[in-house]
Amino acid sequence: MEALKIAIALGVAVHLATGASVAAAAAPQPGKLETYRDWTIGCDNGRTCAAEALLPADAVFDGHVAITLSRAPQAQAQPVVSVRSQDSIKGSVSIVIDGKAIASAVATDDEAQFTGVQGTAIADAMARGKTMEVRHGKALLGKPSLSGSAAALRYMDAQQGRAGTVTAIVAKGPLGANAVKPPPPLPLVTRAVVPPGAAPSSLWREELAKATDVSGCADEFTADQEPELHRLSKTQTLVLMPCGAGAYNFSSVPLIATGMPGRRSFMPARFDLQPGWSEDAGLPMLVNAGFEAKTSSLSSYAKGRGIGDCGSSETYVWDGTMFRLTEATQMGECRGGWNWITTWRAKVVP
């Protein structure tokens, strides 16, 4: 009997340890950004990568033209080059590298996109070129720096497993496209549908005191601020507690309220990966938060400075017990990078 108890105990311990390791392995791990001189690059967990031109470190922001080169992970996928301007652009936009016209496309909604053989031609020329011009008809829109572009694109080749193959942009080799491994499947997040119904009732005075205490935001909370309440289920309510504000960032701590109005209890909302502005081992902190009941999604968007050319964002989906990361973007350099790079994606079902 004693031996049986020991065996059962060991079995339970192994099961718990295995479960813990699986849970740890399942935690989202967004990709990291790398910067090479005037280019920054990152890839997500599905091996889709994007590189973006930055303003030179000593340049002055003056209506910079944003250039992004992205590429899907599939072996036959070709680079896509996007050109965006703060000024209104319509009609033909052309790319000139080292004085040679490489490609042209028609701009719509202030953006021109170069795909297929044009995208590949631009990528090849960028990796070997010295100067780049973006022209709108005869007018010069901008001269993005190519310093660091070759290193960034070599990094892209490596991250997508293209180095040494004919599909690489910089690190070309003799191997065929079939040497490029297929991308990993995106993780699945099962969405809990938010039921229809009346908006949750406001917190009573005693409830507000409890929620403020749980959020740790007593020093930042003022009487003129109202927590945001959003229905999650018949018994659960998302409470966004105001927790400080700056010129363009408004912080809040998300809580989950349960129980009847007037007698609700509160606890910090759970996340499979803490939002980017959360302190280590501290409460989750959202910035410029928003909740959309139709998609059960909670978003956080933190700007590094007012013009929005750096920062980070996360989108989570409620699964009935916690918020699970479905998308993360980042731009670590405050140098004109408007197109924040995606570092994590998940597929939401249903």
Structural features, described:
The structure is a single chain. With 350 residues, this protein is α+β, with helices and mostly antiparallel strands. The protein folds into two domains: 147 residues, Immunoglobulin-like; 162 residues, no CATH class. The chain has four helices and 22 strands. A hairpin with a 6-residue loop joins strand 14 and strand 15. This is DUF1176 domain-containing protein. Keywords: Signal. InterPro entries: DUF1176.
Features:
350 residues; alpha+beta; DUF1176 domain-containing protein; signal; DUF1176
Order of helices and strands: HEEEEEEEEHEEHEHEEEEEEEEEEE
| Distance separating the two termini | 48 Å
Main sheet summary: 6 strands, antiparallel
| Overall form | elongated
Number of helical regions:
4
Instruction: Summarize model confidence as the mean pLDDT.
Output: 92
The counted number of beta strands is 22
Over the alpha carbons, how many angstroms does the gyration radius reach?
A: 24 Å
Produce a short descriptive summary.
It holds the Pfam family DUF1176. By secondary structure, the protein is α+β, with helices and mostly antiparallel strands.
